[in-house]
Design brief:
The chain is about 30% helix and about 20% strand. It is an alpha+beta fold. The protein has one domain: D-amino Acid Aminotransferase, Chain A, domain 2 (Alpha-Beta Barrel), CATH 3.20.10. It has a four-stranded mixed sheet. The chain has a two-stranded antiparallel ribbon with strand order 1-2. It is globular, with a radius of gyration of 15 Å. The termini are far apart.
């Protein structure tokens, strides 16, 4: 029998207190030996982590997935952007979906890239 449920819950649903999808993703990541889960939207594009905003640092620039991908806009993103601006750097760039995939999946830390999962919780 089929199910009428969507494949995923929108990451932004966390604002209403619905953390089930994020909790399950985090548990799956931990069971697989990872520290964190990268959450995808229903199109399979990177949105954020299970409980954190995702930022990528490469070549001196801080970047983050676009809000249209399902990234939750909130305190952490605004705080990071304020700190970056106060330090005289460019405000984090909103990556396209292709750029996000390339930076997260194809480059390693040895190629001068850092991936940050940041949260205020």
């Amino acid at each position: 029998m089929g199910s009428s449920r969507p494949n995923i819950m929108p990451p932004a649903s966390k604002t209403t207190g619905n953390y089930a999808n994020s909790t399950l993703a985090k548990m799956e990541a931990l069971n697989a030996g990872y520290d964190e889960a990268i959450m995808l939207n229903k199109e399979g594009l990177v949105a954020e982590c299970s409980g954190e905003n995702l930022f990528v640092c490469r070549n001196g620039k801080i970047m983050t997935p676009p809000l249209v991908s399902g990234a939750l806009e909130g305190i952490t993103q605004h705080t990071v952007m304020s700190f970056v601006r106060d330090l005289g750097h460019e405000v984090p760039l909103r990556l396209s979906h292709d750029q996000t995939y390339t930076l997260l999946m194809k480059y390693s830390l040895s190629e001068q890239q850092q991936k940050l999962a940041l949260s205020t919780a």
